[in-house]
């Protein structure tokens, strides 16, 4: 909403006194340039003075405490019934007795009293002169800085109010274009935020499946140890413990697979629905997965191990070895599928980053055009109001051309910091790596996954008109211009800023 200053000026005529006041504020603002640096320096000096005053006060207090200590010792040596006697204090016999102690304490006391006056004088200087002077200086500079901010705000409100009071069709078109580009940028940023969560969860699911793979390798080794004990007719108790541990490892692997599958399912549920609509090529195949189920030891295997003797243990061990190898193949295939999904997500994130960069640059260009048009309108109002009394005219900037947002226009902008060839190469490498991870003999149901196609964004040059930099100088028409008999322009509050476009992810 407009500031109170601007609301009070909303009915003010945009005439010669208006621009004279505007220019006088500009001169005042120029005179206050650099006050921030002076204020920062003064505040630092004041902080140093306070710190030094605190340090000096502490030294004075410490000095006073030591003086009191030595005075008490001297008084005890002169008047105390025990400490005044050298005979009763053998530790003083070799150091001059009580008179020697009194002499030493008086020397220390004299030294402390000698350094006290400079400390007191320094503390008084800081407390009565330096700190008050710096506080006054800081207060004055704060007032000057606040005045500078106030002047800047008044000038800004006057500028915006005058422009809002005489809007051109081009200004309205540029404001609409800025709103469109801002909404498009907000949408891409919303998609990007959602896909970052999806990427993190997919990698978390991948770690669960890798943990399951490690457990199955450990189960294979445990099963081989149990089979070796069975062949050499080793300890039956150890063999059964190894079989039980093997079954636990396979069960833990299945739990890790379930956790990974649930994490993957949650990740795919968080995919923004606009992602596939905005980037159909990069999102192709995203979320198309089959989750594996591992083979466990059945009742027949347990019965053979318990009642089948050595032959039953051998058969059950061979069956479990086959199941573990089958499970490893399933996990390997699942990891390849997840890696493929991560490759799709990475490619989609790159495509989103490119789109966001393009829309950011498009928004910046339209904002520059909008600023140029405002300067042009303000200059025309100044020339109309001041007429022949205006300063030497400066040529007005060329009228910009509003470029409304469309996907086609955004695609023509070359994204900064993103190299299309590097993107293409990266996606190709990910695709090749995914193919290499596929096991030769599939041990689970085939999982047909569409490969992510590299997304090559157009790199055509922008077709928008070049943006002329705003000229922030007083602008007037030639003194020979004829007076314009138009209705007086009233400063209007600037239109409220466009609300950010927020996408709700369902």
UniProtKB/TrEMBL annotation:
Region feature (Disordered): 48-67, 486-506
Full protein name: Uncharacterized protein
Organism expressing this protein natively: Coccolithus braarudii
Upper classification of the organism: Eukaryota, Haptista, Haptophyta, Prymnesiophyceae, Coccolithales
């Amino acid at each position: 909403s407009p500031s109170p200053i601007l609301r009070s000026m909303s009915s003010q005529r945009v005439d010669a006194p208006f621009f004279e006041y505007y220019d006088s504020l500009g001169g005042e603002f120029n005179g206050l340039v650099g006050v921030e640096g002076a204020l920062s320096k003064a505040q630092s000096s004041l902080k140093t003075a306070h710190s030094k005053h605190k340090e000096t006060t502490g030294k004075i207090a410490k000095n006073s405490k030591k003086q009191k200590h030595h005075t008490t010792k001297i008084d005890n040596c002169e008047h105390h019934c025990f400490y005044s006697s050298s005979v009763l204090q053998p530790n003083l016999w070799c150091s001059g007795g009580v008179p020697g102690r009194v002499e030493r304490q008086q020397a220390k006391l004299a030294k402390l009293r000698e350094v006290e006056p400079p400390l007191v004088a320094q503390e008084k200087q800081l407390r009565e002169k330096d700190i008050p002077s710096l506080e006054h200086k800081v207060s004055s500079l704060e007032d000057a800085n606040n005045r500078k901010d106030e002047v800047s705000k008044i000038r800004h409100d006057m500028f915006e109010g005058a422009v809002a009071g005489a809007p051109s069709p081009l200004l309205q078109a540029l404001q609409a274009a800025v709103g469109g580009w801002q909404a498009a940028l907000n949408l891409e940023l919303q998609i990007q935020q959602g896909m970052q969560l999806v990427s993190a969860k997919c990698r978390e699911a991948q770690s669960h499946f890798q943990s399951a793979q490690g457990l199955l390798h450990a189960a294979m080794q445990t099963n081989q140890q149990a089979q070796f004990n069975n062949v050499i007719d080793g300890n039956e108790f150890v063999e059964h413990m190894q079989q039980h541990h093997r079954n636990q490892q396979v069960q833990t692997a299945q739990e890790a697979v379930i956790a990974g599958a649930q994490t993957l399912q949650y990740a795919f549920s968080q995919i923004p629905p606009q992602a596939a609509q905005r980037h159909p090529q990069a999102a192709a195949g995203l979320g198309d997965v089959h989750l594996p189920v591992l083979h466990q030891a059945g009742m027949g295997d347990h019965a053979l191990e318990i009642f089948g003797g050595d032959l039953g243990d051998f058969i059950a061990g061979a069956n479990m070895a086959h199941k573990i190898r089958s499970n490893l193949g399933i996990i390997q295939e699942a990891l390849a599928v997840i890696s493929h999904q991560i490759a799709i997500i990475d490619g989609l994130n790159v495509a989103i980053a490119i789109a966001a960069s393009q829309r950011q640059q498009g928004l910046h260009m339209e904002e520059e055009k909008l600023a140029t048009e405002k300067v042009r309108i303000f200059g025309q109002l100044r020339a109309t109001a001041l007429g022949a009394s205006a300063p030497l005219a400066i040529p007005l900037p060329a009228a910009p051309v509003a470029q409304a947002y469309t996907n086609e226009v955004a695609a023509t902008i070359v994204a900064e910091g993103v190299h299309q060839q590097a993107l293409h190469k990266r996606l190709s490498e990910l695709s090749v790596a995914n193919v290499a991870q596929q096991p030769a003999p599939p041990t689970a149901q085939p999982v047909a996954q569409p490969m992510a196609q590299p997304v090559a964004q157009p790199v055509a040059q922008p077709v928008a008109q070049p943006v002329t930099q705003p000229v922030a100088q007083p602008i007037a028409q030639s003194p020979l211009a004829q007076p314009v008999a138009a209705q007086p322009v009233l400063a209007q509050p600037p239109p409220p800023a466009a609300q950010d476009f927020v996408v709700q992810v369902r």
